[in-house]
Amino acid sequence: MSNQTGTTPPYAITPRILDLVARIGEAIGRLDENAIRADLRLRRANRIRTIQGSLAIEGNTLSEDEITAILEGRPVIAPPREVQEARNALKAYDHFPNWNPANRDDLLAAHEMLMAGLLDMPGHFRRIGVGVVGGGEVHHVAPPADRVPMLMESLLSWLKRTDEHPLIASSVFHYEFEFIHPFEDGNGRMGRLWQTLILARWKPLFAYVPVESLVYSRQGAYYKAIQQSTAEGASTPFIVYMLEAILDAIASTPQQASQISSQVARLLAVWGSGVTDQKSDQEAGQETCPHRTTRDDAMTAAALMAALGLSHRPTFRKNYLRPALDAGLIEMTRPDLPTARNQRYLLTARGRALTR
């Protein structure tokens, strides 16, 4: 960790890092960036995945569906703090174009927006000592509060003047930010937000690549990389971890919503058309499913086939239902019993984003 204004944080450029940077560059080259940026529905779906992943790392239990509902102004039955966290994150990620990642005032403004209603003084550096605790153990004791302003000035100064590749610079910043832990709370989500901001300034498509959801899926390795970097006194292990997550996130990012088949598109359009199943959940003996804000759009296979004008069930399952399920665009209300007589299907957050 650097401790002098303007000094370079310690890290090493290894062959593994150079290889990952090259592979990420190749992966970006294979993406149709213009298609991603032009596809509002895809951008929206990826943004929701990003926010859900980043909040989940901090213990927020909201699903993609529930975050979509909050975005749309629909009621969600969830802890008020978790709803506030999602509202703040949705607002913060929408402000990307307004912030300079090397600007101290922008950093503080972003924290104020991200933690509004969650802290007494959001947008201010901490004035108390903090540490990272997990599993009953103290994993990291952050530098004293009176050193935070100087340490952050040094880090932001380095970010402003460095000619390091943005993939590496953003990862170094992310680790150093977590080491300093400049705020009383919200440091994890701020570090991930700021790395995404740095990357988006380099390649705008990173505003819509859900790196945070990949980090969430390998959360244990995330903390392990931070701890290893702290033990070594250099952010090298964390850089490797983040570059691997970025590479996987790019590889898993669809380029266009239009890549789905015409049959699946027709199936999704059934929900968008306002067609509903006539039987209520109660009549069908449906159980309550967690993480759902409404059950009104759940439909039986028979109702979907009728809406599509289909009569051959095997064709419906092979060309419509199964591909949509495999793509994560629809889900079962009874996933534990796929062949249940009262089985129904509904759109996921990703599928709903493609119907708007």
Fold and architecture overview:
It is a single chain. This protein is mainly alpha-helical. It folds into two domains: 243 residues, Fic-like fold, CATH 1.10.3290; 94 residues, Arc Repressor Mutant, subunit A, CATH 1.10.10. Helix content is 54%, strand content 4%. It is built from 16 helices and four strands. The strands form two sheets. A two-stranded antiparallel ribbon has the order 1-2. It has a two-stranded antiparallel sheet with strand order 3-4. A hairpin with a 2-residue loop joins strand 1 and strand 2. Helix 3 crosses helix 5. The longest helix has 18 residues. About 5% of the residues have low confidence.
- The parts where pLDDT drops under 50 for at least 5 residues are 279-295
Per CATH, the class of the largest domain reads Mainly Alpha
Q: How large a portion of the residues is in β-strands, by DSSP E?
A: under 5%
CATH architecture of the largest domain: Orthogonal Bundle
**What is the count of distinct domains?**
2
Q: Which range best describes the helical content: under 10%, 10-25%, 25-40%, 40-55%, 55-70% or over 70%?
A: 40-55%
State Rg: 22 Å
Return the average pLDDT rounded to an integer. 85
SSE pattern: HHHHHHEEHHHHHHHHHEEH
Tally of contiguous helical segments = 16
- First-last Cα distance: 46 Å
Give me the count of strands.
Answer: 4
Strand order of the largest sheet: 1-2
Shape: elongated
According to CATH, the fold-level topology of the largest domain is: Fic-like fold
Q: Find the CATH superfamily of the largest domain.
A: Fido-like domain
Structural class: mainly alpha
Main sheet makeup: 2 strands, antiparallel
